[in-house]
Each structure stands twice: as C-alpha cells, then as structure tokens.
Fold each of these.
Amino acid sequence: MRIFLTGATGYIGSAVLDAALRARHTVTALVRDPQQAQALAQRDVAIVKADLAKPDAYAAAAQQCDAIVHTAMDRRRGPELDRLAIETLLKAANRRIADGHSACVIYTSGTWVLGDTGDVVAEDAPVAPTPLVAWRPAHEAIVLRRSRGRRVRTIVLRPGNVYGGARGMVGDMLRESRRGIIRVVGSGRNRWSCVYRGDLADLYLRLLSDADATGVFHATDGSEERVIDIVEAIADHMPSKPDVRLVPLAEARTTMGPYADALALDQRVASPRARALGWTPVLKGVSGSLTRLFEEFRRGGEVVA
C-alpha cells in the first residue's frame, strides 16, 4: 500500500511510520525540516519537502497514494492550518477516485473532544470538547461527510492519552520524576483513558487494510487509571522517590491555559469498534508497564521489543 503521511516526525506519526515500514508499505512523508527529511530519506521514505500551509506543494503527491494519514498538528497555527490540510487531503482523495482508484483518509483527533465522560462511553457518544480542542468536532464532521463508501473511506481516529517513548504526557511525568518532583493538575483522582503508541500505530494499519472500516474509532487500552495512581507508581519506581505536588486547577490555568483543563479531564472511554476489528492492545495501563516505559524513555523513544 502507498501511504501519504503528515506528521511523520511527530509523536504519533513517527510510530505510524515505523509500523508502516515494518509492514513493507511504501510511505511518502510530508516533512518541513531538511535534517529530518534527510534522516527519513535514508530509511527509503519518499519525501515531500513542504509546509502544511502550502497545499500546492503536496496535494499531487497525496493524490498518488492509496491512503492518506493525517497526524500532523501545528500548535502555533492550530485550527486554521488543520482545516486547510484536511480540505487539501480530501480533495486529493476525490481526485484519485475521479481517476478510477479508491482512497482512504484517516484524520487524527482525540478523546478530549468527549470532555468529562462520567460513565464509560463509546464511539457513538455525543461530543462535549474541552476548550483546548473546541474546534476539532467541526473538523471531524468535515472528514466524515466526505465518505463515499468503499471508493473514499474516511475515518476519524480518536486516541486516548498516548504513552510510550520520550514524549507525551506520561513522558513528561517520567522526565519530571528524574528531576525530583511530579506536578499533577487538580486532585489527581480523575481518570485518563490511555493507549500505548505502538498499539495505536497497529490500529492505524488495521484501519487502512480493512475495506469496510469507516467512521469514528476510539483507541484506548481500557485501563482507566487515576492520574494519582500513575504518578505514585512512577514515584515508587524511582531509586529516590520524587515529591508529588497537586496543583489547583485555577493555578495551573494561569501558566498552562486551557491545556490544564484537558489534563484534568475525567474520562472512561471504550473502543468497541476497534476491538471488533481484532485490535487488542499489547499494553494495558501505564502503571504495570513502567519497566518497559522507563527503558524506552532512556533510549529516547526507541520501542522496546
């Protein structure tokens, strides 16, 4: 399969890239940084050196691929650039079917669009996004409306809080633990629905290969751990136990803005549609996987077999 991938050097996109190459797919990556482009080219990745803001530079390359996976997120230019990117990629998919081919587009969203969930929710739950991602449901809707059955399959994938490697929110906790203090927004009694990045990458490939997969899919491991339990497990894992500081939400907002509210969400998110495809996460929960996660962190994100 020929895959056009945005965000190939990002936290999620790099895991998707690794999984796709292991599965012997051909990947064309949109890359802005010349050094990163050179590193990927040495892995037999076709490179389009361009910025998401310049659709004329990458639309034709996307049109030549069987599948388009959009994982990139520019936090500085945010919603406007994401809207431009998805419109460009969806148009490329439509031009592809006009040429007599099929296409698949996966748009990466996240479970934060669900807000506080209370009980366990699945893919049919109404959205109630935290302010940081208030714009995302509209973009999800654009993607879903462009579905054309098997000719253009459009998929919205909502990962939970992704862990593994040296980045992400759990990676930040591991880094803080080595510095002697871990900060928690709120009481820490809120639950995070999480997913290991290697398991998440596997789900991307399953969605690409299943000709009937379309619509919204969640990606969570079912662990539903409380944040404070994750933090205490990390602290117990350290040779010298770090201090744990609970930061009131109002205080956290002054330095972190709406990101603080996202960290304080209480979520219980299930993934029945992904499970129906045969997707079974290898890792379930952060607390029971810390030996592996610390090793990946020390290796700078390299996945431990």
Note: The two ends are 25 Å apart (CA to CA).
Amino acid sequence: MTSSNTLHRERLLQARAQLLQRMVEERGGLVSRVDLATRHDVRDVENHAQSITERDEAFAMNEHETAELGAFEAALARLDAGLYGECQDCGATIPEARLTAYPAALRCIGCQTVFEKTR
C-alpha cells in the first residue's frame, strides 16, 4: 500500500469514527426509523406539531448520517479496489484538496456541480 493510500485510509477511518461517535452521543448509535419514531410521541395534542417536527428532524438527521456512513464505507471499498480518487462520472483524478476536505468524494468538482444541478 502506498503512503498516499495509507493517508487516505487513515482520513476515511478517522472521519467514520468521528461520525459514529457523534451518532452515539446524539442518538445512542445507529438507530432504526422505528426506534426513532417511538422516541417521539406525537399523540400529545397540545404539542402535536412540535412533536412531529422534532420527529421529522430526527428522521432526516438519522438518514443523512446513515448515508454519510455508507459513503465512507464505499470510499474504503474504492480504496481497496484501486479506484479511490477517481471521478465516477468522468474518470478524472479528484484533486487532493477535495479529498482532504471530503474524503468520501465520488466526483470531481465539475461533475459534482453538474450532478447537484440535475438532481
């Protein structure tokens, strides 16, 4: 394994560990949507709207963090396959600065911009 791959692996593992720690601190770890729903009782008529809002925010955060965790796992798999740092759309090398800023990046800046505009 090259020193560059080792550095990338360390960054990915560190970012994944930080995400998991944040998830543990905020919600007790990986939590299913059902478990989150049971934590937010929406039957209280006086606080119904607030309860629904809190529940929906918790759902969104949980789904975002689960997707982010999946992105780190996928990046580690790309690293093992020798594809890490290669844009999945155009095949160009993703700049090191982008990988440093977001180690799980799938696309170069140009392709990511196009992707976001079309979604």
Note: Helices lie at 3-27, 33-39, 48-81, 96-101, 109-117.
